[in-house]
Specification:
Elements (H helix, E strand, L loop, with lengths): L2 H5 L3 E2 L2 H15 L6 H9 L2 E3 L2 E3 L12 E3 L1 H6 L6 E6 L21 E4 H6 L8 E4 L6 E8 L5 E6 L3
Antiparallel strand pairs: 1-6, 2-3, 4-9, 5-6, 5-7, 7-8, 8-9
């Protein structure tokens, strides 16, 4: 599916609603205290880049609680997860050297069907945060690999 056709099947939240969900997500899942200095330097502190002010870290480095899950669990969730929200870190294109990496704005939050998301991950950055409107759980896809060479996927909360 081409990107423009894909966009017909998703909802990009308005800026205010996106900011609200992002902030609620951070309050629920991110721990700014345990490694406070690092969090301040990597997430809270914004740095000026050619594409605006961005942070330099990854929220998943500061999750309050985490369980590592595999691709098989992600596939199992296809059976019952429906609408989800997905967003990504506010990183600069100056630090990402993959051509045409950003398909959406850095601060967008997208609502879409979970299966559609999994079938079209190529439209999203490697590091994405998935949740739903209840914010009871999150799944995080990272750009890192585990010791077995498989993509590092983190879950917090019961799905």
């Amino acid at each position: 599916m081409e990107l423009e056709k894909f966009k017909n099947h998703i909802r990009i939240l308005g800026k205010g609603e996106a900011a609200r969900y992002r902030n609620l997500y951070i309050k629920k899942f991110v721990d700014p205290y345990t490694h406070a200095q690092c969090y301040q330097e990597r997430i809270e502190q914004l740095y000026e880049f050619s594409d605006g002010f961005c942070y330099e870290g990854y929220l998943w480095d500061f999750l309050k609680s985490e369980t590592y899950i595999g691709e098989t669990q992600i596939e199992e969730y296809r059976k019952f997860l429906k609408q989800v929200f997905v967003f990504w870190d506010n990183n600069s294109r100056d630090r990402i050297f993959i051509k045409d990496y950003w398909k959406f704005d850095k601060k967008d939050v997208i609502e879409l069907d979970y299966n559609l998301l999994l079938d079209h991950l190529e439209f999203f950055p490697e590091d994405i945060y998935i949740t739903n409107e209840t914010l009871r759980w999150t799944i995080v896809f990272t750009h890192e690999d585990d010791l077995l060479g498989k993509r590092l996927i983190i879950q917090d909360g019961r799905i």
